[in-house]
Amino acid sequence: MEQTKFLKYLALPVLILLLFVQSCQPDKEPIEDENVAMELFDVSYGDHPRHKMDIFLPANRTRENTRLLIWIHGGAWVDGDKGEFVDFKPWFEEVQDDYAYISLNYRLFDVASGANKFPSQEEDIKMALDYIKQKLPEWKVSDQVILSGGSAGGHLALLHSYKNNSDGLVKVVAAVFPPTELFTLGNGNPLITFLLQTLVGNPETNSDMYINSSPINFIDSQSVPTTFYHGDADEVVPIDQSYLLEEKLRENNVPLYFEYYPGQGHGFTDQTYQNMIRKIEEFINLHL
């Protein structure tokens, strides 16, 4: 009876000790076995809830040969999610071998409260790329990085590649119906004009912000090879935005490839997207 009573009193502190020791154990990271394909969802690259990325690592990847394509989602900087890449991923995989993929979230501008005004989104892409660069050896992925995105994501991809790519991590940039010059983006569209004035500020009093947030202002002869795609019936981001990009790239002799799709708006048909992705891969292979 006394022995049972003793064991009863002994069990509680032992249990507490075990729980304490277990709670002090660091969370184990998933083992990045390069021979096994892995999908890592909602990986944090910062402290904000929107600082998340999805990572798709192929089997048998190597530091020498496995390219990395990073996708930045669209949504007018106020909406959207990294999950949009799921629709494009099978089409990329059809034409690409030995690629890893990352799809990024970033802070969204809150029109109602005014939170996360620009350049919050630009800063998040810089933070994400810094994190990715540090993780490439662990993931067994090369530094042959392609940055890409559509609409607002295309704008952020171009802006980072021309303005914030001092480490040379991004080797090629691909953009789909991207804003490139914010002063003229509204083009008489009152909704776009209102969004820009709340997101970036009044262009008359905040002209420096418009200049610093427009990708074409950072193009020079050393800019990365660029491929981009636009529909001539786009009523959200006028095709003139890509005409300006084309002109500036040509002036600086930057390698480029583009296609303008007749009758296509802000969003392409599946067939057009698939054609576009084949063209992107052909362009990448020319420059990597």
TrEMBL record:
Keywords: Hydrolase. The keyword Hydrolase applies. The keyword Hydrolase applies. Signal peptide: none annotated. Residues 53-249 form the BD-FAE-like domain. PANTHER family: AB HYDROLASE SUPERFAMILY PROTEIN C4A8.06C. This is Prolyl oligopeptidase family serine peptidase. It comes from Shivajiella indica. The lineage of its organism: Bacteria, Pseudomonadati, Bacteroidota, Cytophagia, Cytophagales.
